[in-house]
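Need the bound structure for 4GX, inputs here:
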Amino acid sequence: MQIDVFTLFPDMFVGPLTESIIARAQENNLLTIKRHNIRDFTTDKHHITDDTPYGGGGGMIMKVDPIAAALATTLGDALPDMPVILLSPQGRVLTQQVAQELARQARLALICGRYEGVDERVRQLFVTDEISIGDYVLTGGELPAMVLIDVLARLIPGALGAADAAENDSHATGILEGPHYTRPATFRGLTVPDVLTGGHHARIQRWRREQALRRTWQRRPELLLSAALDEADKWFLMTLAEEDAPPP
Ligand code: 4GX
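Answer from helper R.:
Posting the output first, comments after.
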């Protein structure tokens, strides 16, 4: 997968994308991330990338012409038929399902806005999809772009180690994960549940499933409405409904 990022702050991407799984995916040529500084595509003496809004009011708007030049120069013939994603609070909210849909693409362009946003003609001419990482306000689209890259990177076949497969993730399965333990067996008087040290694989599997269902019922009950549940899951949830009151 190749991701072209258009930003006024390309250096922000260095740390998060040069460590761990994303670094390894790039070294193994599973992922290529190209950063483009929108300011490099200005043609005026002062390299201006923003301007005041028509109609007045506060704030600054990113100009369309540097963004247009950056996209045309960098993407060239690929531009008309590749996804161009604007990160913004007005976009559809990123979920694991949205990520799985985007992960099918071989190439993506991400536009990171700053200030009050971008001239509407950026959307009209270039943007094919608009994504929000959640309902809160950030200072720019760079962190959202990095979140999206991170989510996509671990969905690329071969990017994760054999141990962690993306299929078993919380949110890929539709419910939350339950508790995990590793050594030591006792820490500050807190012990590992006996079932996990008993070596009975089927019992361990069932216990983990029930812990996951209990945690989902307690913390995110709405997820259970769309989760894939079998008869055993439903029976277990019936017993929970009697003991634990769901949150308001
Ligand atoms: N999920 N922000 C973008 C400027 C902006 C506004 C409109 C383009 C269009 C955000 C989020 C987010 C703040 C990043 C406003 N750029 N982006 N920025 N939440 O809050 O994606």
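Comments: Residues 201-219 form the longest helix (19 residues). Residues 86-89, 113-114, 117-118, 132-134, 136-138, 140-141, 144 surround 4GX (CB under 6 Å).
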